[in-house]
Amino acid sequence: MKSRVLVVVAVVVAAVLVTAVFVVVYGRIGELEKRIGILEAQNGELQGQLGELQSQLSEQQLQNREQQDRLTDFTYELAKARHLHVKITGYLKGHGGPAVGLTFVIGIDVSIQNNDVVPVSGLTLTATLIDNDIGTQIGDTGAIKTGRLNAGESGNFSVPVYYSINSISRINPADVVITLTAGSVILDQLDTRGAN
Pairing with 113, which of 51, 55, 66, 85 sits 20 to 30 Å away (CA)? Predict the structure, then answer.
């Protein structure tokens, strides 16, 4: 009988312990669910704020592009009205390598300086490689548009020039003709032909 009472007591104690553990675990699960709900609500708010910030960023980028376009138009109109003091200050034949298949590319690194009193934007830099023995053009003429250059500011730009594999040996000794334009107005030109 004693053993029976001990078994019943043990079962009751075990049931009470299981119930107590269940109540504690269930309470903690409830707390965790509340925290998860709070975190989900905060996440939703942050997602909303992120969406608003992305919308504002898109609007700012659109306004920036519009301002850049207006500055480019202003630069061109001003270049037609008077000479802009923007100069090519130097160049360097950069590293080249394969572009696609048997076509290769070399970067002509060009430095320009805006010595004018106004910012400029949307200038075009073109670079042409000329065979210094026979005077013919090597590959294509490379061209890029510059970004904004404030008054007194200088900038460095790499103009890609594409050429075929059979011109590789003529690239290093080639002469370079670099032209800086605002629309159809030539602002400056650097021509190394005959400079040697």
Answer: 66
Rounded distance, CA 104 to CA 118, Å?
38
Full-model pTM = 0.68
Closest CA to 126 of 181, 48, 59, 50: 181
Phi, psi of 143 (to 5 degrees): -150, 145
> Taking CA 94 as the corner, what is the angle to CA 92 and CA 100, rounded to the nearest 5 degrees?
145
What's the one-letter identity of residue 109?
A: D
Residue pair 130/137 in contact (Cβ under 8 Å)? The answer is yes
Written as one string, the DSSP assignment of 147-187 is: --B-TT-EEEEEEEEEEEGGGHHHHTT-EEEEEEEETTEEE
pLDDT of 196: 55
- Asked whether 91 and 110 are in contact (CB, 8 A), the reply is yes
